[in-house]
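Usage

Read records sequentially. Each one opens with the input sequence:
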Amino acid sequence: MYHSLTIDLQHKMMIRDVHIADRPRERLIRQGAESLSNQELVAILLRTGTKQESVLILANRILSSFDKIQDLKDATIEELMLVKGVGQAKAVQILAAAEIGKRMYRKHSEGRYTIRSPEDAAAYLMTDMASLNQEHFVVLFMNVKNEVLHKQTIFIGSLNSSIVHPREIFREAVKRSAASIIVAHNHRVTCS
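and closes with the structure output:
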């Protein structure tokens, strides 16, 4: 369980007003990252607040703009910049951290990921595709050992459909010298 530092949003407390031992960075060093709240972790990523607000208040506002912290992994720069006090640099920092988290979560081996069953393919793709709002048609290109050579989104469609041309899939398969392919989508696909 983590102990969180809560800041009254009505009071414009700056980080310098927080006792040094209770500041997020110092607590992380002393107690470990798992002891920090989501607000404190985002505050560390942001590094600074604005002239009017502390980094903790800004972090809280970012988190309040999304239903849950997991939604940050799918946020766009534009969505993050809609939050008052978040410019392009802060938005990029958050997106970079989210991408690092996605990459660490993937269960890939040191070498290429080998697919031996439909479950392996699902595990490989679910991290990225589980929460997509639009239709994504993704192809895995594999070598003769069923190791993934490349993953590519071939088409992004509307909320519930996409039109995929086979030539786009096979052009990429030839280019990659793929021995086999796996196609996946997160909604309904119409091929033509």
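Summary fields computed downstream for this record:
- Residues 1-11, 188-192 have pLDDT under 50 and may be disordered.
- Helices lie at 24-31, 38-46, 55-64, 77-81, 88-105, 118-129, 166-175.
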